[in-house]
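If you are new to this repository, start here. Below is one unmodified record pulled from the training split, so you can see the exact layout before writing a loader.
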Amino acid sequence: MRILLAALMLVFTVLPLHAMQLGIDRLQATQFETLKGKRVGLITNQTGADSRGRLTREILAKAPGVKLVSLFAPEHGLDGKKLAGKSVDNQKDPLTGLTVHSLYGATRKPTPAMLKGLEVLVYDMQDIGVRSYTYISTMARCMEAAGEAGLQFVVLDRPNPLGGVRVEGPPVEPQWISFVGQLPVPYVHGMTCGELAKMLNERQWMAARCKLNVVPMQGWQRNMVWKDTGLPWIKTSPNIPRHDSPAYYVATGIVGSLAGLETGVDGPAPFEICAGKGIDPDSFTRYVQSLNIDGVQARPYLGDGFGGCRLSIDPRGKGDLTFLALALLNEVNRRSKPDLFAKSSGEKLDIFFKVYGSKDIRDLLSRGTPVQRIAQNWKPGVDKFRSERSPYLLY
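And here is the target side for that same chain:
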């Protein structure tokens, strides 16, 4: 009996808390072999943590044979608390004492001075699977800087919370490539950050290629949404508080940059609302329900003169959430007097076109082009991307 108990205790000691292991877990399992003897810069924030919740920057600071020299913080800052679009300052990390270089202040890309003395850049942040979320843009520009400086670039891979099957939405035209649309992928790309890194590096989407090493996960499958991983969700930014928030971001994130809309951002239900001034909530909700999008439900919303609906989205649903975004945009725009484009300033329109990926959408909607036809025109690009991404998939 004692022998059996001892054996069981050994099994529970060796087994991880979660059957699924992240890139940082796998790096620890190899005793940090990739980074041994090297001077390291880490691109991270509060989401950079192993499956037990220990911060990657603390892990690497204590890792034997690894010299963690500096940190780099993206939009929202090292702690993820800065609001979208707000500048992030350089600082000193209270946990490690290291300098934190801002990549969302004076520069979006590490400068040669920031990289001086480094031998490798490590990227460990949780993405949400959507083109306009800027963490993958930060990764791309850091890879470019690493390539120009001759540094190794290591990606510690993480799950895509929307899964690896969902691929949908408009492409981004070359003239609209920007920090909110850095990579030429559909709005929802269905790839992990490690897979994206491989694809952008091999296809030379940035000005310089780098020496790339992706540390893959263990146990993740493409049909998994976040809830299936068994991992705790760490709020990636102020308006992505829950594991299902990325699905809502797809549905209303595009339209959120236009004036005259309420999407719940900066409130208790970010991205879960779609409403416009003076719109009847009951008829608007009936319209959304009539779309019959699998995994999507709606109920009437009315607040501060804004009428529309509050969404309920199951990330496992098969419905096209980017089509939902387009339908919501068209319906609110049609019911608003003046329409959303007329209400929006030049700066807001510019951001909208960058997020959407094209300026043509305004003309298409103003001419009354059916949203089904617009979405159908995305399909060849989505199919082409599915084929092109295939060699870079790790799972």
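Two things worth knowing about this chain: Residues 42 and 57 are 7 Å apart (CA to CA). The chain has 15 helices and eleven strands.
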